[in-house]
Amino acid sequence: MLNPGTARRITDAVDTAFDRQLEFTAELVRHPSLRAAESSAQDLMFTELESRGLAMDRWALDGDALAGHVGYGPSTVAFEDLTNVVGTYTPQESKGRSLILNGHIDVVPTGPEDTWERSPWDAEIKDGWMYGRGSGDMKAGLAANLFAFDAIRAAGLEPAATIHFQSVVEEECTGNGSLAALQRGYTADAVVIPEPEENMLVRANVGVIWFRVRVSGKPTHVREMSSGFNAIDAAYPVMGALRELEAKWNADQGSHRYFEDVHHPINFNIGMISGGDWPSSVPSWCEFDVRAALYPGIAAADAWGEIEECLRNTGSEANVSAERTGFFSEGYVLEEGSDAEAVLASAHEGVFGSALRSFTTPGYLDGRVFTLYGGIPALTYGPVSEAIHGFDERVHIESVRNVTKTIALFIADWCGVDESA
Amino acid sequence: MLNPGTARRITDAVDTAFDRQLEFTAELVRHPSLRAAESSAQDLMFTELESRGLAMDRWALDGDALAGHVGYGPSTVAFEDLTNVVGTYTPQESKGRSLILNGHIDVVPTGPEDTWERSPWDAEIKDGWMYGRGSGDMKAGLAANLFAFDAIRAAGLEPAATIHFQSVVEEECTGNGSLAALQRGYTADAVVIPEPEENMLVRANVGVIWFRVRVSGKPTHVREMSSGFNAIDAAYPVMGALRELEAKWNADQGSHRYFEDVHHPINFNIGMISGGDWPSSVPSWCEFDVRAALYPGIAAADAWGEIEECLRNTGSEANVSAERTGFFSEGYVLEEGSDAEAVLASAHEGVFGSALRSFTTPGYLDGRVFTLYGGIPALTYGPVSEAIHGFDERVHIESVRNVTKTIALFIADWCGVDESA
């Protein structure tokens, strides 16, 4: 437990540097770090971490090593384009508990930019929100990690345990970035991941599987189409079969701890579709990409088996096949009662003046990597946002300030602090 | 009416050159003359026509001139890549009726090549059929035009009227190729178009409109998808609304001459679809390409008005918009009783030993250009084929032989012949 004076020095330091923090966040947002195009943003992260005197590590993901891991998600991009950045702080004398401050640098596509009210990459601040693709998910969080650390030193203190800052790729598609960091040997007594979580702590979340369904057959000229096969038509009942499986899994929510009261916890999203080659030819093929969710405790392989069975029994006369195209992850639960959670709750209450609330989220989180495969309590906790993955994504500025203060207090309490020499 | 001896000399000449005709047809098929990639095939046509001493003309389509024509189909490719080839035969003395021998060089995409039993471009002959994309639709016809003409001269005769050989582009998407030939001033007393029509004459056919429908809205993160908008889902009822319009138009077939007994004459084909940007984002947009048919006598603008009204009243909460992307054509009827038809019927009966049958086809044909805008009777008549626009497209060899003979006899009878000097 920090004494109030120390805590005050730290939170004041967050306030003092907050304009610079926003500037840095905006600079990060201005790098369109879409999948496999994260390099310039990672360069910036590397430079910032290095300038703080951290020991730097940057490496390309190792496809062979990843492919042997049960939590690996099949990749559809080249691994050489995917690099993680880690900066490590090592104290003079290690007395406290070590920590990973994790965040992902990759962002999802903008969708049609003309549906945005502004450029997705201008990071404009307006009416208390910062806009832009990745502003909430999760460049504000990456910056919060960094400036929380800064605040401790700006307050004349030094953390008393090892801290690894991780800026990882692939969180939006496979989870292979955090998995690669774990495989590289990075471990700690706790991990903080400031995803946009409405100033709350994630208690449990779903696993996610990505797959692509191909529906095909042999049609002929459009003038004979009424007797023929049309793959676009045939795709919709296949989607319908998957929706039935989704409904079945949702109906089972009562038997899954922390999911009993979540509204529609299992979402099967048909996120992309393509099909056909020519307007006047009856389409012979149609493919669609699905993101399916599964409850914690269910192996991805078992869920995948059910999905495959569903696709074998659609009753369609078409050829229906599926391949995995990304996430192949299980969900996780942050077990109640950990020291890490207690320290976070204390920090949060000190900043917000209200108790830390936890909740269950139906979206993928890298927390599963640390929890399931590292035995590390994962504190996924971060600012208020709106429209992540949508248009005019934005993050709430004052929430970012308070989350940064909470993380700073957490670092100080968890790692311990010494007065600077 | 040709005397039997002359006719026999001509049909024998077709037989004599038939192996070379098949070789040339195969060579044409081996040029994958997909849209805007017809150059090498047009080079071949140009060389072949020129080697026969014809006066050559090759020109790029003129977008501005075309755009002013009511039969113009909006183009989505650059006009400079689209060239027509015409070779003109002029007799020493013009005594007979002039003729256009028309065919299109463009072919539709193959679809997934692994669904073919062989390469779509190898033009293999097997069990009496020549296989390949474009074999039936309509390179066999283009070659038949040319070798029918050859046969007359090989028989020691010279046609006694002007003949324009046209190898046009854009028949599979806009019809702008034949329209451009008409605009360039090519006209005649009749036109023969050997499309794959089962050894029959097309009496009537539909008009076609191509358009792309865009369904869009503002969704958000997949974790909130149950409350949100999904454009791929939303596209399906919009297709359903179009299907209702299709059913309405089909129900009206009884009031359209020559369509009373056609099975399902009006086809709305959803030929292509695309949508969404990311599997884990709820899709904000979905586009699909439609090929719609309309009866002869209905202005394309009127049909389009009905389609637009249909799309305004789908009841969808989505934004639904549509743009025209190709064909904007009316259908046509070949009125009974023309001299041209009588001459063709006579030639056909002389070769096949059975009466020429006519029928109504629910697919687009360039015949509408000559009929509607040139006042030229269009004889769309050609060989037996299977799976045009599908997989393993093929054309029946003996049918090609007989159609070539019929066209040769038609030329001789229509244009008249003189003994060669």
Short description:
Chain A has 421 residues and is an alpha+beta fold. Chain A has helices at residues 4-16, 18-30, 39-51, 63-67, 135-154, 176-183, 231-251, 300-312, 339-352, 367-374, 397-415, and strands spanning 55-60, 83-89, 99-104, 125-126, 129-131, 157-159, 163-168, 191-193, 201-205, 207-216, 269-275, 285-294, 319-328, 332-333, 358-361, 378-380, 385-386, 394-396, 417-419. Chain A folds into 2 domains: 4-205 and 331-419, Zn peptidases (Aminopeptidase, 3-Layer(aba) Sandwich); 207-328, Alpha-Beta Plaits (2-Layer Sandwich), CATH 3.30.70.360.
What does this entry look like structurally?
The structure is a homodimer of 421-residue chains. In chain A, the strands form 5 sheets. A 6-stranded mixed β-sheet of chain A has the order 1-2-7-3-8-16, sandwiched between helices. Chain A folds into 2 domains: 4-205 and 331-419, 3-Layer(aba) Sandwich (Aminopeptidase); 207-328, Alpha-Beta Plaits. In chain A, a hairpin with a 2-residue loop joins strand 4 and strand 5 (129-131). In chain A, helix 1 crosses helix 5 and helix 7 (231-251) packs across helix 8. With 421 residues, chain A is α+β, with helices and mostly antiparallel strands. Chain A is built from 11 helices and 19 strands. The first copy, chain A, has helices at 4-16, 18-30, 39-51, 63-67, 135-154, 176-183, 231-251, 300-312, 339-352, 367-374, 397-415; strands spanning 55-60, 83-89, 99-104, 125-126, 129-131, 157-159, 163-168, 191-193, 201-205, 207-216, 269-275, 285-294, 319-328, 332-333, 358-361, 378-380, 385-386, 394-396, 417-419. Helices cover 35% and strands 23% of the residues of chain A. Chain A is globular and about 80 Å long. At the A-B interface, strand 10, helix 7, strand 11 and strand 12 of A face strand 10, helix 7, strand 11 and strand 12 of B.
